[in-house]
Write a structure and sequence with these properties.
The complex is a heterodimer of chains A (about 200) and B (about 350). Chain A is mainly alpha-helical. Helices cover about 80% and strands about 0% of the residues of chain A. Chain A is globular, with a radius of gyration of 18 Å. Chain B has two domains: about 20-50; about 50-335, Sulfite Oxidase, Chain A, domain 2 (Alpha-Beta Complex), CATH 3.90.420. In chain B, a hairpin with a 2-residue loop joins strand 9 (about 230-235) and strand 10 (about 235). Chain B is globular. The chains are: A mainly alpha (about 200), B alpha+beta (about 350). The interface of A and B includes residues 42, 100, 169 and 171 of A.
Chain lengths: ~200, ~350
């Protein structure tokens, strides 16, 4: 029992620090003045990118657990989800601060007129509702409705991939890669549901 | 086929041997400049063409000289203050590491990484279509009669960022005149080199651009004195990631019009296809004039971020119609609905 919990704790720290690395890397680039001519754009896109990756990791938990028997992953799913929310928050904050300079006219214009920004903001609102209800206490209080609420992760992930696809200029290799992953992960869940 | 640009065998005086107007004007200006320098202590007079300023290039950054004939050209370059903005130029480092040159990758840093060994000498340019003197010319011959000018222009990217860049080049108009366009030459199309060996993105299966990259101008736009053929920047030859050895600079249009690494200039009667217009016609028009009043469907064009920016100062400024060059070019579009013809 003691050994198992120590193993779990070790895993928790490894995962926690691994997912913190991208942020530390960005901070290192920031401190060494290595973010390029357009640091705001770079920072915002990198933060968004890592928000997406963390969300995709949290969505991969169910398929990986079922297919490879990695049951321990489920213990850390909350962390993956909260990391996605963490990077998404920084992404939004960096956008408002560094790209829009907190100019309300620009923020208002972006949030009302830019379809890909609107989709991104909607996804963030969904993630926010999941993050604030992510505690054990909220889980208990909401009971059955908690699970139903947390199904919002699926529409959120679809909004996020749309947000990403909407920014394609020419090359769409990355967008295609993450779309296929998402289709596989969501498709697998539909498959399981049909079968049961 | 490689043909020499200027034949000396014929008894006739070729029109190309007659000094183009801009050249003798420049010579005149140079004389004036020389005189004014002599008169400087007395009059405090500043000239139109002056010695090219020294740009600060840190020693740890690559600088490009080009072949010997290019070095000579560059050494003789003069600064054209009348065609330069008085804004702060971007540091060289940022100008060579923040590039959209999709042939070498779509990340801003990709061109600096992957264009390092791009071969830009020898280089040939094909002149074709509605001109009296079509042919394939060596770059050296293309440049031969033109004196280089140092001009500081704003560069406004369609992605809503901008930089101020000191180019070395000569007016496209002077080049065009040498090839004697016929009355059918209503448009000019430019083409970037197609070289899948050297340009990784041209091999990509996931790009939407149909290579080679092509761009175009209406002939009166091409003949406007602002339109520059550049071979250098910051007092040196162009780095490969900035479109060496020969690129277009059209400062009142979005940056994607300023096509890089040109191998073909074609004159036609009909409006040519342009790469971004083929890729997304509702987003990128043929004209692509900088216009704060007409948004890109996915983002606003009302403001821009003047680079380099820092995190603490995003450097957001209002975008100007025609990128601030309205006085020089607005007349070209008189009577046109620029909301429709964006």
């Amino acid at each position: 029992m003691f050994a198992a919990s120590r193993k779990r704790l070790a895993r928790w720290w490894i995962l926690f620090l691994s997912l913190l690395l991208p942020l530390l890397w960005l901070v290192k680039d920031l401190l060494t003045n290595n973010l390029g001519a357009d640091p705001a754009q770079y920072l915002v896109s990198q933060l968004g990118y890592w928000a997406l990756i963390c969300l995709w990791i949290s969505l991969a938990v169910t398929p990986l657990r079922r297919l490879f028997g990695w049951g321990w992953l489920i213990q850390h799913r909350r962390m993956f989800g909260l990391y996605a929310f963490f990077y998404a928050s920084l992404h939004l904050l960096a956008f408002a601060t560094f790209l829009a300079g907190w100019r309300l006219d620009i923020l208002l214009r972006e949030v009302t007129e830019r379809p890909y920004v609107i989709v991104g903001v909607l996804a963030f609102i969904l993630l926010l509702s999941l993050a604030v209800t992510s505690t054990k206490k909220m889980q208990r209080r909401l009971g059955r409705r908690w699970q139903q609420l947390h199904y919002l992760i699926y529409p959120a992930s679809i909004l996020i991939i749309i947000h990403f696809i909407w920014q394609i200029r020419s090359d769409y290799a990355e967008q295609l890669f993450f779309s296929i992953l998402l289709a596989l992960m969501l498709g697998y869940r539909l498959y399981i549901k049909r079968r049961s | 086929m490689n043909r020499k640009l200027f034949s000396r065998n014929t008894g006739q005086i070729l029109s190309s041997e007659i000094t183009p107007e801009s050249i003798y004007k420049q010579r005149r200006q140079f004389m004036q400049a020389a005189l004014s320098v002599a008169a400087l202590p007395v009059l405090g007079y500043s000239s139109v063409l002056a010695a090219a300023p020294e740009y600060d290039i840190p020693t740890d950054l690559p600088r490009y000289a080009g072949p010997d004939w290019m070095k000579q050209k560059i050494a003789g370059a003069a600064h054209n203050a009348a065609f330069s903005v008085k804004e702060k130029t971007a540091p060289y480092y940022h100008a060579i590491t923040h590039n959209n040159f999709y042939e070498f990758g779509t990340d801003k840093r990709d061109p600096a990484r992957y264009a390092k060994s791009f071969k830009t000498d020898p280089w040939q340019v094909e002149i074709s279509g509605a001109v009296a003197k079509p042919g394939v010319y060596n770059l050296e011959d293309i440049l031969a009669p033109h004196a280089l000018e140092d001009r500081i222009y704003r560069l406004r990217c369609v992605e809503a960022w901008s930089m101020v860049i000191p180019w070395l080049g000569f007016p496209l108009a002077d080049l065009i005149k040498r090839f004697e366009p016929t009355s059918k030459a209503k448009f000019v199309q430019f083409q970037t080199i197609l070289d899948k060996e050297q340009m990784s993105e041209q091999r990509s299966s996931f790009g939407t651009i149909d290579w080679p990259y092509v761009e175009g101008l209406r002939i009166d736009e091409a003949m406007n004195p602002l339109t520059l053929m550049a071979v250098g920047m910051y007092g040196n030859a162009l780095p490969p990631q900035n479109g060496a050895p020969l690129r277009l600079v059209v400062p009142w249009k979005y940056g994607f019009k300023s096509i890089k690494s040109i191998v073909r200039i074609h004159f036609s009667e009909t409006m040519p296809e342009t790469s971004w217009n083929i890729t997304a016609p509702d987003e990128y028009g043929f004209y692509a004039n900088v216009n704060p009043a007409v948004d890109h469907p996915r983002w606003s064009q009302a403001t821009e971020r003047r680079l380099p920016a820092t995190l603490l100062s995003p450097n957001i400024i209002d975008t100007l119609p025609f990128n601030g060059y309205a006085d020089q070019v607005a007349h070209l579009y008189k009577g046109m609905d620029l909301n429709r013809l964006f």
